Every structure is written in structure tokens, then in C-alpha cells.
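Hi U.,

Before I forget, here's the chain from the pilot set. I'm dumping it here mostly so it's searchable later in email.
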Amino acid sequence: MRAALISVAVAFQFLTIVPPPLRRKVSPEELGKSVTFFPLVGLLMGLLLFGLHRLLSAVFPVTVAAAILLAVWIACSGALHFDGLLDAADGLLGGRTPEDRMRILRDERVGAFAVAAGGTVLLLKFAAMGNIGEAGALIAAPVAGRWLTSMGVVLFSYARTDGLGRDMKDNAGWPQAAGATAIAAATLGLLAPSVGIAATGAAMVLVCISAWLLVRFTLSRIPGLTGDIYGALCEVGETVCIVTLAANWAA
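Structure:
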């Protein structure tokens, strides 16, 4: 139980702006085991968005409420995943060689590809939040996105020889993938009756397809995944999920 609680604390410390619950350096083993609880972080983040949606919708027009929710959504993680998306867009779409792309991924400057990718994701999320018929979609999307991150860590090779991503990859395995999947499946299963069983199923199918396409493209450009790609997987998963659920309700 103590080990599980430490893993939960590490997951929140790594993925959110919550003040660090552990006042010490996190070990590589603890970082790897925390991968199990990434979808749990998404669940609690989604519950926050769900509550804010109820409150804001009673006070503001739909578009204003959606804009505030989007800002909170990004702020909850300190724009960690969004920054990964921007870096991934510049790195994967730029450069002539894998070495060039790996160098660009480390570059903190933002290029045209990053602006285009980031703007598209923000617009899609904003538009979707203005059209969801059931606020449970705001819980499903963060869970789906962070589940993809867990799967990306466990299932695919890592491109770098050091760093936090390397420590996480080396210490996360099938038990973490199974735990993350169980948390995500339980959450989405509970949400499905209200959000829509068919819509939830369709959303997860499209989430998996989009992740597979992103990973395949990544591996054709660089020798493995990186921390930035993990962030991009999360953003893509969130966006595809909430857009699919919004399409269902709009129809």
C-alpha cells in the first residue's frame, strides 16, 4: 500500500503542477512504477474540469466557459504535454536526418510546425468543449490521453540513452501497462452509460488508431520515442477523444 501511494504521489508530482508531495529525489524505480497511475491523474483532472464546467456553464456563455476550461486544462499540467506536442511537431516534421530531428526535439525554440500543430489542437478542443452534450466527456479525454502515455512508455523503444524518460522506460513494464489499462477501462466503463456507449467505444478506437499512426510516423523519423512524443501522444489522445464525443452529441 505504501509503495502504491508513493507511485500515485510521483505520478501527480511528474504530470501536474500540484506541489511535490515527496520532499526528496524520486528514484528511477519509483518513476517507472508511477506509470500505472497516469490515467488516475487524468481522472482527477477530468473531475476538476467536470465541476468547473457545471459552474461556468451556469454563469458564462458557452464559448467563454470553454475558453476558461481550456486554459485550466493546460495549466493543470503546467503545459507539460502541450510543450511536448510543440517540440514533437518541429522535430518530426523538420530536419533532414534522424540526428537533426533529435537535435530539434531538444531545441526550446518554437517553429512554424509547432505553431500549426498547437493551434490546431487548441481550436479543436475549444470547439469540442462548446458542443459536448454531456460533461463526462471532460473526464474521458484526460484519462484517454494519459493512458496513451502509459502505453507509449511500456510498448515502444526509447530514443535517448539518459534523462527522465529513459529512467521511466527502464523501470516500467507490463504490470504498469496492465494497471494503467485497468484504471482507464474502469473509468470509461463507468462513464459510458452517460456519455454514450457507442460513442465511447468509437472514441477509444479512434484514439488507438491515431496513436498508432503517430508512433509509426515517429519511428520512421527517429529511432524511438522521447518525452516529447509521450506528451504529443497525450495531447492527440485527448483531442481525438473529446472531438469524437462532441461529434456524437452534435449529431
